[in-house]
Amino acid sequence: MLLSDGSVNSFNLNLQEKKALILSKSTLAERLKYISMLIYYRLNEAEIQINSIKQGLSKIIPLSILQLFTGKELSLLVCGKKDVDIELLKQNTKLSNDLKEDSKEVRWLWEILNEITPEEKIKFIKFCWAQERLPTSHEEYVKNQIAFTIKYNKNDINKNGFPKADTCFFNLELPNYTAKNIMKKNLLIAIGLDNNSMNADKITGVNSMNISNNQRGSSNKDDYEKEDDYDDKYDDNYQSGDDY
Predict the structure, then answer these.
(1) Which of 82, 85, 120, 243 would bridge 116 by S-S if both were Cys, CB 3.0 to 4.6 A apart?
(2) Number of CB atoms found within 10 A of residue 9's CB
(3) Which domains, ranges and CATH numbers included, belong to the chain?
(4) Closest CA to 37 of 10, 62, 17, 19
């Protein structure tokens, strides 16, 4: 039988015996026995690895406690929710002194986050925090001292530039946008750039733009004009984020 790692388990039967089980006019009981052997080996092929994981977990958490949870519940506690809960994130957000809840940048951001796809929401979290999953409850935010911070870049001469992120502190810095559609467009471009690694060894961006390690998050305006026909109000260079 072919196992998941590509190896073959012989069931301690020679070829002639296996052919006899499969091809001969054997009884139904014999064939069911062979099927049960197949199922057994597939269910137990990773037994050594699972026992090693179990042994490691037992040094941190008593195994008796793990029995209180289903596999799904334990996965949720360890990994968090795959989907981004915008309302929960909003409840655990801080604003810089220059911003208020009714500031246009703040209002537009929450509206945009509720409009974009689940995949784009995950990219947004990764852009701001270098992680894909958030705490599952308000208590976890508080317990782990996690808070999303929105800052206002009032000194940016380019009012409609690109947002910046401090992933170590879960901060997002927004320019003074003049329109929501511009903010949404630039935010989606920023989170669409490479954020698969902290050091951006491999960069992928809009239309495969060439961005070196020393220019991480920075590109010439002309690259965008080819695709989006940006006008002269955008700077020759922009910074899309401090960390990815």
Answers:
(1) 120
(2) 14
(3) 15-68 (no CATH), 86-228 (3.30.2410.10)
(4) 10
